[in-house]
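Components:
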Amino acid sequence: MNIFDQYLNKIKNVLLDLSKNGNIVLPEIMDGITTEIPPAHFKSDISTNVAMVLSKANNKSPLDLANILVKAIKEKDELIDNISVVKPGFINIKFKPIFWTMFVKEIIKNSDNYGINTNEKKQKYLIEFVSANPTGPLHVGHSRGAILGDVIANILLFNKHKVSREYYVNDYGNQIINFTKSVYLRIREILFKEPFPLDNENLYPGDYLISFAENIIKFNKEIDFNNFDEISEKLTTLSIDESLKLIKKNLKSLGVNHDNFFSEKKLVSDNEVEKVIDFLKKKNFVYKGKIKKPEGDNNENWVEREQLLFKSTDFGDDKDRALQKTDGTWTYFASDVAYHKNKLDRKFDQLINILGADHAGYIKRISSSVEALSNSREKLTCKVSQLVKLIKDKKPFKMSKRKGDYITVDDLINEVGKDATRFIMLNRSSDVELDFDFDSVVEKSKDNPLYYVQYSYARISSVFRHLKKDLKSDIKIDKYDFRYSEDEITILKKISEWPKCIDISSKKLEPHRIPTFLYELASLFHSYWNLGKENPDKRFINEQKKITNAKLIFLKSISTVIKSGMDLVGVSTPEKM
RNA sequence: GCGCCUGUAGCUCAAUUGGAUAGAGCGCUUGGCUACGGACCAGGAGGUUCUGGGUUCAACUCCUAGCAGGCGCACCA
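Structure:
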């Protein structure tokens, strides 16, 4: 039930009628015609730009054309109170109060589905996110991408698409070798009292490796840890398992659930990399060649070498990309191409990748490969989550990989909790750097939008509690013979924008619009609530300790939107705070 | 040198996928609590949307040339 879509269709039908009768000329494409939310001071409910879009084709001024259209639109619609033409050529529609009564009725009849976009073609999505190296716990930067991906998935699921959440496990390559060596040295430290070499840059110095080592020793008594070469393969598996256990725990504490963990190592051992390179060779996208040194690059150590390259420049990349290292092993990129081939072979309609800001430069390369594999530019969408700037005691908190100097997801959850973390991380567009201020996030006040929204839900709950009614159960009303006041309609109008908000969030993959919307709705609700102090008519519970049907379903409608929005964000809506 | 992201009120950010008089919070300031929970509300001040061109009936939004900040740029992942 999207009143903006509904009226867009009505208007298009009016246009078709008028053009059949020869009254107006229609262009071939009617894409530019929209229905929108008029600015508040116009005191109307829906506006459309139709007259401005069609004025040229009709050789009439937008205002003249609008006047013709206005008559035709109003003629067919008993719910319109007033329809007017404004300056550049906008048509503004104001509904009769009964429109809003009917509107609430629709929501109440099917409150679980309110906001869902029913027009969209249902698709099968694969969203890959987090995919952090399995070499240690997740930190704050990962959590933003994790939440972003999770909520995008929630929104797509809400719109009845099929979605699979996937984590690509980079369990192959040099980093894993270094990681396993680090675990091994921690084991030797415990068993043979050999101090861990903290000065080696290739090793992982983090304290968490000590507990990895302890666990591995404890549960693998049969292993002889004296000779690394003999146990390296086994130890690699065990070490990665330890990491993944920790990562999964971190994800769980953030409320993030992946459907699938996809192993890079398995991809390589199944020869999927060779297969995809053959595939691309046949299409002439792979060749042996040399990469030129970038201009202006001061690196003196540049070595030009011949290697297997992917022709990503054919797709707009600034250089071709290496697939194979000199030692014969695959580059990260090569196996990632194979991974994306695998995704495509699993018949997903759309692929979404969530990347951290530090990997943004990688997008061109991987999207080029997907285009080469699928002949489509639209198959893959990459979203970047920008940096999180931590602020503590009003000062920026610098993270470095050196021991004890970076904040993990565990720290974050322990300090501010899951709900606040999710809400605040999502409250800003993923394109902008995020200031994450520990002090204000923890504060239970108006500084914290999470509590502001939750509080509105708690207030609604308290009314139902007083009336001994259940907010969650369905409400049945016999007669919709009441009319809402202007104050109430202001809120109902906001509620009518909810499907539009979902729609845009979903199409643009911009979930930050949801917390923003919820905040605005909560704000309107709090204003209304306070009107009840001066004016008893605005109170929900009257002097006989009863509530009218009108107010009952009014509250129910508000709570429906708040609840489903908060569910999408993945935070709780407590009935008492 | 190149690529990506950002630039909007003193600060942190929105802006209905090109719409009308650019909106919130914080801060500043003036008011409102014997309550359906004040974790709230009402009012005020505060803007050349980084700059210059262009496209359009309409530009914070799109194109282009700059400026500033961030991130990245080999066989790492």
